[in-house]
Amino acid sequence: MPGTPGRRPRVAKHFSVTAVFMIIAFAGAWFAFLYLWEGQPRRGLFSPHYDDFRLLANALARTSVTLISTVFACLFLAIPLTANMFTPQLIENFWRARSNRIILGLYVFSAGNAVWLNGVPAKEQIPRVHLAVSLGLVLLTVVLLLPYLFSIFRQIDPAQIVARVSENVQRAMRSTTPGPDGRYRDVLARRIQDLGNLALRMLERADRDGAILAVAALEDCAEQWIGIKGKHKPAFFVVDSSHFPGLSKPALQLINETRTWVEWEILQQFLRGFDAALARAPDVISAIGRSLRHLATTAAAADDDGALEFCLRASNNFMREAVKRRDIHAVYDLLWQRTELSRAIWSSHPKSVLQRVRELNYYASLAADSGILFARALVTYDLGRLLAEVEGHPEERNSIFDTLLAAGQPAGTDRAVRKARLVAAARFENNGDHGYALRLMEQLQDWPKETLQDTANEILSAERWFWEITDRQENLNWLDDAEKSALRRLVGLEEAR
Predict the structure, then answer these.
(1) Are both 120 and 162 inside the same structural domain?
(2) Which domain holds residue 488?
(3) pLDDT tens per residue across span 309-347
């Protein structure tokens, strides 16, 4: 299923060897049966008469010309039209495939051989070898007609197009052949842009599944690049304004110092795709956010700080665009992706997590000011859960808690923010972080005790799974039994029983 994590499009083989063998065997048996059934062993191929030879040669010529016309008509209709809809690389990929060159060459040779045979003056001596070869070629091309047409149609399937364009990118990435570094840079950049343009074309055609496949292919290429970039020479990573005309000198200097021009190029494709998908394809937005999170996690695991920082900056771009468009689904999904990413890289990059958390609070406030009021409460929920689940790095953890205290300020009458603080306090109390829990409860002192207990009862009655279908699905207010007991203690419900 397109978009399923862990599954990526693969290039199907043009032909099933078993199927072609079975077709050839059946065709051979069928023609042998007809030949024996008709009882004319001395006519046709083995006939010494010129008229029989001329009749057979003419039939072979007409058949071979019809076959090659059929193949090329389908080819010239299917490939250029599909390339115009998706990517010109389809034509390049088609001619690069060895099987296509072999099969088309076979059809051309068979037609030329049959036409040549039909024009041979053979009154004195019949060219039996030529005739036998021509008959065999025509029979072979007849047998291959349907499998080859099927293979052409398979090659214009969107999933196959994405897979082949992705293979071109990965092939360019693996190329370490000695030569001009500038040429290889240009080839790789063009391949990446082709894959990004393919995603945009699919979004323009409202092809949701194809766009998700293209996003997944970009993710695969980026993750592979992080693993093999060390094999390239240092000169490969030096770019100038001729490669990226829109970048300033400081931006180019940063890219060169961090050796991240390839990652920058891939992230540009993500940014263009995200902008095109906003308010049109929510599933594609989720796929892009997930792919960026996976890419950042891969960069963190590889200790590629330059690539990680670019990924984190790209996520900020996503947040700003989503807020500008007031896309509630995008904001909701991106906040969750940012929290998941922070959890994934906490142990190895706590300072990066701290910086991202501060930025997250900024974008949540920006979203709330733009009318997306739940953003402040959502950040409070997410930060509380993050701090309750991660361990170590006390300095950064304390700083994140300070950000949590500031999240949603001023809370005013925002009941959702207050409820989120109650949930966070219950988790801290259950984990033994009593100081965190007490500081959160201090922020709720202006609430009457009865109101506080009523809100706590709402949290205690929350079911685990939200009553609507959402990306998260789990109810933000849900607490396990131990956390519920902690909440009762904090608000004094134990005494009220």
Answers:
(1) no
(2) 378-497
(3) 999 999 999 999 999 988 888 898 998 898 899 999 999
